[in-house]
Design brief:
It is a single chain. The protein has helices at about 1-45, 45-55; strands at about 55, 65. It is built from two helices and two strands. The protein has a two-stranded antiparallel ribbon. By secondary structure, it is mostly helical. The longest helix has about 40 residues, at about 1-45. It folds into two domains: about 1-45; about 55-80, no CATH class. Bound molecules: zinc ion.
């Protein structure tokens, strides 16, 4: 009876430890992924490319403006 309950206790402990380490592992992966995503946002060339594609370059000043709500860059000969 005692041996059985001890085995059960050990098994329960092992399961709890496995779950605990599993969560720790997942949390570490998640943190690493978030850190990477944050780093990518900083100097990510992909995002900058997408941004440049959605913007129109002003032929006069070379400033990128959004086609929808284009604003003048301040120059007198700016077409926007
Ligand atoms: Zn302009």
């Amino acid at each position: 009876m005692f041996g059985f309950s001890l085995n059960k206790l050990l098994l329960t402990t092992a399961i709890i430890l496995a779950i605990w380490y599993g969560f720790k592992w997942v949390g570490r992966l998640d943190r690493a992924r978030k850190k990477k995503a944050l780093k990518d946002q900083g100097g990510e060339p992909e995002i900058r490319t997408a941004e440049a594609e959605s913007l129109v370059k002003c032929p006069v000043c070379g400033t990128y403006v959004s086609p929808g709500g284009a604003e003048s860059c301040g120059r007198e000969d700016c077409p926007y």
